Structure formats: structure tokens, C-alpha cells
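Key result, reporting period 2: structure in, sequence out.
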């Protein structure tokens, strides 16, 4: 088998009933030569048996396939482990419950090879059951140097659609050892170092996660913890990367304002109006009078009035 040019990486955690399906969407790719690396993030169930059962299919598909188990350290650490052992010059990432179209890598590699200055590429995707609602919208598929537009939300890139060069990862660094928000932090760091190529084609399906998904921890208390993590990560990002040529503090503040907006809403829905008002003042001081934060003033007033009657606003 020729040395693979592309390595597909799937971290998995307690999804034996789904990971095989995701793996098969990689084995069905039209691009060759191809490597598939799956990292079992300490599932402790029958995931190893499921992954081992895929060896014959991978061999028949002409794909170099390997899997191994590591101590549970989160999806970022699992992806880093795979990249450290990968043979490919390009890395593509897929979660264990999502799917690629068969020509995903072929189309994306063509775009990358046609733009050799680019270090990363992203595509459109759909959510399972909503094939007529592709995301991002075409106007959110900007490419080139996209750090500012990623922060402002005028460009939206999803990691499951991502293809990145090994060299770009070497320049910007691996995933942070986080259980949440590691994908956004990784892409922002890359966007400071390399231009992106947007491929306006639906080539990935994002499937509805179950209760075990890290990003869907049940309850607003979990939302608050994720909010606090995101705000901390963005503060640390600013401190670490503010001297980069492509860095923009106003752009990062726009992203922080959106995170604060969600954080304050979560506090409101929990009925913690005083904390919400304090967080709102903190957000204005940190990010300036961004539109999202200004719009919250009316909601905060409504929440305060509701509190006088022992009520709280409901999450929409």
C-alpha cells in the first residue's frame, strides 16, 4: 500500500453502536491512498471489539487502518495522539457519530491542492434529518485569512468538515487538553497562521448527539460550566496570541461578547438575576457595548420584574 497522503482521525468514547457507522463513511471515501486512525478514549466497554471487527472491511477498501485505546483525556488529547502517529500530510477529523459523503476528501483535497498556500479547508454540512438546510450559509463561507470573520461569526467552520495540513498543525500547535471548546480554540489558532479554503458543498452530516455527548451535558448548570470554560480560554488566548500579526482584539471581543450573551441568558433562565446583572456589567467592561450585550438589557429588566413575583423567565 502506498504511503497515505490523508489521515482521517476519529476519537471515540462509549459509542460502539455508532462509531462503526462513522468509520464506514471513511472507508467509503473515493480518495486514496488513505489512512484511518481511531482512538478509543478509554471507553471501557465493547468498543475495542467493534473497532477490531472493521479490519477486514478496511483491508478490502484498501485503507490503512489502526485503532488503539488511551486513558480518557477528552477529544482534543485523543486527536493529538492520533496525529502523533499519523502518516498523512493532511489530517481530517470526524466525530464518532457523524458521517462523511463518499467524495468528501476527494473534493476537499482538490481544493487544497489548487490552493497550495492554504493550510486548512472547511465545507458545508447538514444535520441528520434536515437535508434541505445546509450550514453554513453561502455568505458564511469566506476563505483566505479568516481569523476576524471566525470571531465575528461571518465565517463559520465546523471541525467535522475540516482538513488541515500537517505543517499547519506543526506551526500553530496541537489541540488544547480540553473537554469542550477545544475545536474552536484550535481553529482560531490556525487562522492566525494559515489561510483557509472554503468548499461550498455539503459533504458532512452532523448527527443528533445523545446524552453521553460532551457538548450536550444535561442542564443549565452544565451550560454555565461550559460558558466559564470558554471565557477563560478566550482570556488565555488573548494573552498568548495578541502579538500575532493577524490577531484582532476587537474581533476576539466580538466572540467573547457572544459567549457572555449565552452565559447571561443561562443565569437568567436559572433565576439568578443578580448574578446575570453582574455578569452583564463585566461583559460590557471587558468587551465594550456590543449589540448582543445591549439587547440583553430589556431581558434583564424583564427577569428582574419577574423575580419580584417569584417567577423566572423560561428558556425559549
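The corresponding designed sequence is given below.
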Amino acid at each position: 500500500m502506498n504511503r497515505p497522503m490523508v489521515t482521517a482521525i476519529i476519537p471515540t468514547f462509549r459509542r460502539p453502536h455508532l462509531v462503526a457507522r462513522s468509520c464506514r463513511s471513511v472507508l467509503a471515501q473515493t480518495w486514496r491512498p488513505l489512512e484511518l486512525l481511531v482512538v478509543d478514549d478509554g471507553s471501557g466497554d465493547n468498543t475495542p471489539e467493534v473497532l477490531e471487527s472493521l479490519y477486514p472491511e478496511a483491508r478490502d477498501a484498501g485503507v490503512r487502518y489502526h485503532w488503539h485505546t488511551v486513558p480518557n483525556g477528552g477529544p482534543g488529547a485523543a486527536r493529538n495522539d492520533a496525529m502523533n502517529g499519523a502518516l498523512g500530510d493532511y489530517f481530517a477529523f470526524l466525530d464518532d457519530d457523524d458521517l462523511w459523503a463518499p467524495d468528501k476528501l476527494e473534493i476537499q483535497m482538490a481544493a487544497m491542492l489548487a490552493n497550495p498556500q492554504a493550510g486548512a479547508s472547511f465545507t458545508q454540512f447538514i444535520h441528520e434529518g434536515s437535508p434541505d438546510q445546509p450550514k453554513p450559509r453561502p455568505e458564511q463561507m469566506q476563505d483566505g485569512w479568516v481569523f476576524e470573520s471566525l470571531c465575528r461569526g461571518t465565517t463559520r467552520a465546523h471541525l467535522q468538515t475540516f482538513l488541515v495540513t500537517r505543517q499547519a498543525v506543526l506551526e500553530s500547535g496541537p489541540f488544547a487538553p480540553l473537554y469542550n471548546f477545544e475545536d474552536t480554540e484550535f481553529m482560531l489558532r490556525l487562522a492566525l497562521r494559515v489561510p483557509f479554503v472554503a468548499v461550498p458543498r455539503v459533504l458532512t452530516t452532523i448527527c443528533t448527539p445523545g446524552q453521553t455527548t460532551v457538548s450536550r451535558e444535561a442542564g443549565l448548570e452544565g451550560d454555565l460550566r461550559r460558558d466559564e470554560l470558554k471565557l477563560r480560554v478566550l482570556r488565555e488566548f488573548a494573552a498568548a496570541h495578541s502579538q500575532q500579526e493577524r490577531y484582532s482584539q476587537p474581533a476576539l471581543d466580538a466572540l467573547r461578547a457572544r459567549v457572555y450573551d449565552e452565559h447571561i441568558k443561562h443565569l437568567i433562565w436559572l433565576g439568578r438575576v443578580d448574578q446575570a446583572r453582574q455578569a452583564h456589567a463585566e461583559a460590557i467592561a471587558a468587551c465594550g457595548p456590543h449589540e448582543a450585550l445591549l439587547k440583553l438589557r430589556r431581558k434583564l429588566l424583564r427577569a428582574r420584574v419577574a423575580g419580584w413575583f417569584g417567577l423566572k423567565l423560561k428558556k425559549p
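Residues 6-206 form a domain with the Spore Coat Polysaccharide Biosynthesis Protein SpsA; Chain A fold (CATH 3.90.550.10). The chain has two domains: 6-206, 217-308. This case is discussed further under Risks and Mitigation.
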